[in-house]
Write a structure and sequence with these properties.
The structure is a single chain. This protein is an alpha/beta fold and 187 residues long. The chain is built from five helices and ten strands; from the N terminus they run H-E-E-E-E-H-E-H-E-E-E-E-E-H-H. The protein has helices at 5-10, 56-66, 77-87, 155-166, 173-186; strands at 13-16, 23-26, 35-41, 44-52, 68-72, 94-98, 104-106, 109-111, 124-128, 141-143. Helix 3 (77-87) links the parallel strand 5 and strand 6 (94-98). The chain starts with a helix and ends with a helix. Probable phosphatase.
Length: 187
């Protein structure tokens, strides 16, 4: 596999999406932001205004103790790299970063193929606000509500107890399937 040795001690890899899962970014000027980034694209500099989903710092600290953390984003590297540097300035939480060039683009949407991690899919969990992205490995995917700016959002906190139940299991897929996907089929 391509992941570090600590991945084996942590056993399970938790893959997190960025936009509308952990943060919301916009090019529109706004005041109540957590930070701004200067990103150069289309031949000019842009200011990107970033808000962090409530409880993000605590969430990252907690999940980094339980899992090997990977950020897998359909965003462009030029933006996402800077953003992850701000979320994890000491590079002690997130062990791997995967960007748009590693996504598959088909039928107008990006898909994240988890096999590129090079680890056993029984030990991989992805949290993403766009369920289409994990359509190739539905039973590895935990959908989360898209977040834009609601300051009272509790989704990350509410996800923690479920994630804790996955630590050390042989195969995450039947557990995720039972918890999340049988309800999707009924809707």
């Amino acid at each position: 596999g391509r992941l570090s040795k600590s991945a084996r001690s942590k056993q399970i890899t938790l893959v997190l999406d960025l936009d509308e899962t952990l943060v919301h970014s916009t090019l529109d000027h706004c005041d109540n932001v957590d930070f701004t980034l200067q990103v150069f694209f289309n031949m000019k500099n842009h200011t990107v205004y970033v808000r962090q989903r409530p409880h993000l710092k605590m969430f990252l600290e907690k999940v980094a103790q339980m899992f090997e953390l990977v950020i897998f984003t359909a965003s462009q590297r030029i933006y996402a790299e800077q953003l992850i540097d701000r979320l994890d300035p000491d590079e002690r939480l997130i062990s791997h970063r995967i960007y748009r060039e590693s996504c598959i683009f088909s039928e107008g949407c990006y898909t994240k193929d988890l096999t590129i991690l090079g680890v056993d899919l029984a030990k991989v969990v992805i949290v993403d606000n766009t369920p289409q992205v994990f359509q190739l490995q539905v039973d590895n995917g935990i959908p989360i509500k898209s977040w834009f700016d609601d300051p009272s959002d509790q989704e990350l906190v509410e996800l923690l107890p479920f994630l804790e139940t996955l630590v050390g299991v042989e195969d995450v897929r039947p557990i995720i399937s039972k918890t999340f996907h049988h309800t999707l089929e009924q809707n």
